């Protein structure tokens, strides 16, 4: 692996870890306490499933950032990196709305602009690097589930 690729991989991991730590600080212990006590729809994952989804999300982010950092110079490259960082920040903000503020209402409505941001990133990635876009695609599918799940949480826990 070339020196630049190692640096790019470490940067992608570092950015992801930094946001994960910030997200953890913003959410506190709500996952083990508040989240375990609220009413869940029948299609909700068990707690261990949420940890797997979170791990896969950060792994996906690392791959996307790594691929973008290694891409040839292009006018879209910087924009796509910032959109990806915006997606990571938006995810942590959503975690704050949901876990930090313990609000199913804010979490539901917060998913709408977040999903639009991820969709814009996906469309832009399709034009830039199709493989990287397809790495993001399962997350778009996940967001459909997430919107339905969060809506049900909101209705069930009014």
Automatic annotation (TrEMBL):
Note whether Membrane occurs among the keywords: yes
Q: Which UniProt keywords apply?
A: Membrane, Transmembrane, Transmembrane helix
Which GO biological-process labels does this protein carry?
tetrapyrrole metabolic process
The way this protein sits in the membrane is described as: Multi-pass membrane protein
Q: What is its main location?
A: membrane
Q: Which residues form a coiled coil?
A: none
- Work out whether the entry's keyword set contains Transmembrane helix: yes
- What Gene Ontology cellular-component terms does the record carry? membrane
Q: Which domain of life is it from?
A: Bacteria
Q: Gene3D superfamilies recorded for this chain?
A: TspO/MBR protein (1.20.1260.100)
Pfam families recorded for this chain? Answer: TspO_MBR (PF03073)
Membrane-traversing stretches: 9-28, 48-68, 80-99, 105-123, 135-155
Q: Where in the cell is it found?
A: Membrane
Family (UniProt):
Belongs to the TspO/BZRP family.
**What PANTHER family does the entry give?**
PERIPHERAL-TYPE BENZODIAZEPINE RECEPTOR (PTHR10057), TRANSLOCATOR PROTEIN (PTHR10057:SF0)
Q: What is this protein called?
A: Tryptophan-rich sensory protein
């Amino acid at each position: 692996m070339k020196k630049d690729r190692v640096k790019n991989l470490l940067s992608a991991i570092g950015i992801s870890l930094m946001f994960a730590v910030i997200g953890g600080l913003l959410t506190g212990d709500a996952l083990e306490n508040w989240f375990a006590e609220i009413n869940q729809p029948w299609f909700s994952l068990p707690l261990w499933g949420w940890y797997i989804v979170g791990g896969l999300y950060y792994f996906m982010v690392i791959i996307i950032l790594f691929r973008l950092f290694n891409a040839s110079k292009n006018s879209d490259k910087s924009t796509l990196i910032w959109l990806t960082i915006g997606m990571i920040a938006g995810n942590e903000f959503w975690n704050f709305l949901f876990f930090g503020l313990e609000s199913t209402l804010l979490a539901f409505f917060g998913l709408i602009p977040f999903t639009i941001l991820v969709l814009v990133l996906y469309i832009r990635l399709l034009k830039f690097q199709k493989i990287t876009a397809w790495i993001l695609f399962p997350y778009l599918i996940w967001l459909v589930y997430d919107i339905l799940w969060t809506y049900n949480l909101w209705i069930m826990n009014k």
